Amino acid sequence: xxxxxxxxxxxxxxxxxxxxxxxxxxxxxxxxxxxxxxxxxxxxxxxxxxxxxxxxxxxxxxxxxxxxxxxxxxxxxxxxxxxxxxxxxxxxxxxxxxxxxxxxxxxxxxxxxxxxxxxxxxxxxxxxxxxxxxxxxxxxxxxxxxxxxxxxxxxxxxxxxxxxxxxxxxxxxxxxxxxxxxxxxxxxxxxxxxxxxxxxxxxxx
Amino acid sequence: xxxxxxxxxxxxxxxxxxxxxxxxxxxxxxxxxxxxxxxxxxxxxxxxxxxxxxxxxxxxxxxxxxxxxxxxxxxxxxxxxxxxxxxxxxxxxxxxxxxxxxxxxxxxxxxxxxxxxxxxxxxxxxxxxxxxxxxxxxxxxxxxxxxxxxxxxxxxxxxxxxxxxxxxxxxx
Lengths: 205, 172
Known about the structure:
The structure holds two protein chains of two kinds.
Chain A: H1 9-19, H2 24-34, H3 38-60, H4 69-103, E1 120-121, E2 124-125, H5 130-144, H6 181-193
Helix pairs in contact in A: 1-3
Chain B: H1 11-33, H2 36-53, H3 62-80, H4 109-121, H5 124-135, H6 140-147, H7 151-170
C-alpha cells in the first residue's frame, strides 16, 4: 500500500471519533484535542464529508453484487431450494399420472383407441371388450358352483367388480382355465380383427 | 479589508468567510455534535460571534479562530440541549438526524458519483466492510463477529477502503 493510499493516523482517529467507535475516555480525549488542534478539526470535517458521501452513494445505488457475497449466497440458496421443490413437485405429478394410467380400470369406451401396454387376457386386449370379460366372469361364477374342476384364479370381489379387469388380477399364462367353447370362439374372432393401434369396434359377438 | 469603526468585522468579510469555510465548518460541527440541527445552531452562533469579535483575529488565522469559536459554541449548544457526549453515540452520517441546509449540502453530487465508482473498484472484502459499517451502521465489533474475522482485520479493511475512497474524493 502506498503512502498516498494509507489513511494517515489523524484521519483514521477522526473517522473513529465520527463513527462513535472510540471508547468514552478516548472520545473525550480527542474532543479536548479539537479545542486547540486545527489539523484535527479539519480531519473531522474530511471524515464527515467522506462518510456522508459514501452513505449517499449507497442509498442512491446499492453497492455492486460483488460486495454482497453473503446476500448473494442466500439468494442463490433460495433459488436452488425453490428449484428443488419445483423439481420434486413435477416428479410427484409425473409419478401420480403414471400410477393413474397404469392402474386405472379398463372402462374405455368402444371409440377409444387402444394403447400400448394395456392388459391382455388370453391374447386379447381386455379393455377392448369389457362386456366380454364381464360375461366370462359371470360364467365362471356359475361354473364355480358346479365343481372344483375349473382352476379359477380371478380374485373377483363384490365390492369392486371392475377391479377384476385389472391385468394383475387375471390368471397367469401358466394356469389352466376351462373356458367355454363360445368364449374361445369369440376371443379368436376378436384377436384376428383387432390391431393394437386401431380404434375398432369391439362389441362382443 | 479591515474591521469597521464599531470594532465589528465588515459584513462583506464575514460573508466571504462563510462562502469559503462555511461548508467545512458545518461538517466539523456535525462530526462533533452528531446532529445537523444542532450543528446549524452552532454554525449560526459562530458566525454571529465572528461579526462581533472577528476583528480581534489576524486575517491569516481567521479560519482557525472561526473553528475554535465554533467548537466552543457547539459545546454550549450541547449543554443547552442537555445532550451529553456520552449520550450521542450515533454516527455522524446517520441520515435520520441529517437536516441538511439547502445552501450547505454536506456532500456534492459529483463527489457521490466518484465515490460510487471507487466503491465498485474496491475488493469485495473491503466493499462488504464499508457496506456493513456505513450503510447498515453496524459497529466493527458486530461486523467482526458476523464475518468471523478478528476485529483488527475489520478495522484494517475499513481503513484501507477509506484511504482509496478519500483519494477519489480529493480528485475533485
